[in-house]
C-alpha cells in the first residue's frame, strides 16, 4: 500500500471513489509544461544555494527533458492513483533518475507549486488572448476603413435615432476590445508574481533564493507573504472577470450581427462558413456562430461567479477547494480564445449591404435633430426649435414621407423660416458630415480614428 506519495501515514488505501473524487490529473495535466519549468527553476536554485548537489540538478534536468518529450509524444502514462500533475511528474522523475528525483521537492510544497504553475500557464494564455484581441481589432479597423462613408441608422431604444457611419459603429467595438486588452495587461502584472518559496504555507527552513527563481521564470515580482502566496486566487478571478467582459462585448456584437442579418433588416450577410442550415427548411441560413458566442458568454459569466463563490468561504491558507479553480479557468481560456479566433476570421467575411442600410436610415426622420440645430443657429432657442421640428415631423408623417424627403415648399408650411440652405443638412450625408469633432461620426473623423488605431496596433 504505497501507491500515494503521502501514504505511509495511512493504515488503509483510499477508497476507489475517493481516489477518483480527489484526483485532478484528468484536467491539471494541462499544466505539465509549466510544472516542469517551475521544477527546473527550483532545482537550479536549490543547487546554486548548495541545498542539493550539482549532480542531482543535472540528473533532474536530464529526467525532465525526457519527461517533456514523453508528454509531447503522447507516451507519458498519467496515473489517477498519483492524484495530480505534480505527483505524476515527480514519480516518473524518480523512476527515471532515482534518488535525485526524491530531492526535487526539498523546500517546496504542492501548495506553492500549483500556484506557480497556474500563474505561469495563465501568463502565456493571456499573451495569446491579447494577440488575438489585437488581430480582431485589426480586422474591425480594416472593415471600418472600407465603410467610413457607408451610412446606417444609429439606434437608441432600438428605434431610429440619427444616421451614423458604419465605420464609426465598427470602431465602437475596437474601443471596447482596446479596453479589454488594457485589462488583460493590467491583470497580467498581478498574475506575474512568484508564489514559490511559500512552501506549504509558512515558508521553509532552507536558505532559498526566491529572486533567482523569479528571474529564471520571468516573474516580475515575488509574493511578500507566504500565507497569501498559497491561498490567493485573486489573479484567476480578475482574469475571468476580464474574460467575461470580452465575451460580453462579443455577445453584444453577435446580437447586432444576428439582427442585421435578419431578412427584415438585411444590413449584412455572413459568409456561409460561419452559418448552418436547417434539417427541415431548405432555404435556411442561420447565424449559428454569433448565436453560440452569445450563448457561451453565459458560461464565462458563470465561471466568474463560480470562482468568486469558491473563494468566499475559505479560511487561510490552502484548502483542497482550490483544486476546483482549474476547470473554470481552463474553460474560460478555451471559450474565449476559440471565440476570438473565430471572430478574427468572421469579420472580414461580413458582406455589407449599403442600400438596405441607407433605406433604413431614410425611415424614421433620422435628421430631425439637424433641422432643430439649424434653427438654433438662426437664433431660435433649442426648446422652441425642438417643438417646431416635432410639428415638421408630424407634417412629414401626414404626407407619408421622411423629413429629409420634404420639398422646401412642404417644409415651409410648418417651418416658414426654412431656406435652400437647410435641405442639404437634412440629408444623411449632411447629417453625418456635420458631426465633425473628436469622437464624432463624420467620415473624416472615422478616417482619423482608423489612422490612430492602425498606428497604435502596429
Ligand atoms: N492538485 C492540487 C490543486 O490543484 C495541488 C495542491 C495540493 N496540495 C495539497 N496539500 N493537497 O490545488
List keywords for this structure.
single chain; 458 residues; mainly alpha; Fumarase C, Chain B, domain 1; Fumarase C, Chain A, domain 2; Ribonucleotide Reductase Protein R1, domain 1; 3 domains; binds arginine; arginine biosynthesis
Descriptive account of the structure:
This protein has 458 residues and is mostly helical. It has 3 domains: 7-106, Fumarase C, Chain B, domain 1 (Orthogonal Bundle), CATH 1.10.275; 111-147 and 155-359, Fumarase C, Chain A, domain 2 (Up-down Bundle); 362-457, Orthogonal Bundle (Ribonucleotide Reductase Protein R1, domain 1), CATH 1.10.40.30. 61% of the residues lie in helices and 5% in strands. The chain contains 19 helices and 6 strands. Strands 1-2 form a two-stranded antiparallel ribbon. Helix 3 crosses helix 7 (110-146) and helix 12 runs antiparallel to helix 13. The longest helix has 37 residues, at 110-146. The radius of gyration is 31 Å and the shape is elongated. The two termini are 60 Å apart. The model has no long low-confidence stretch (mean pLDDT 96). Arginine is lined by residues 24, 28, 84, 110-111, 114, 318, 320, 322-323.
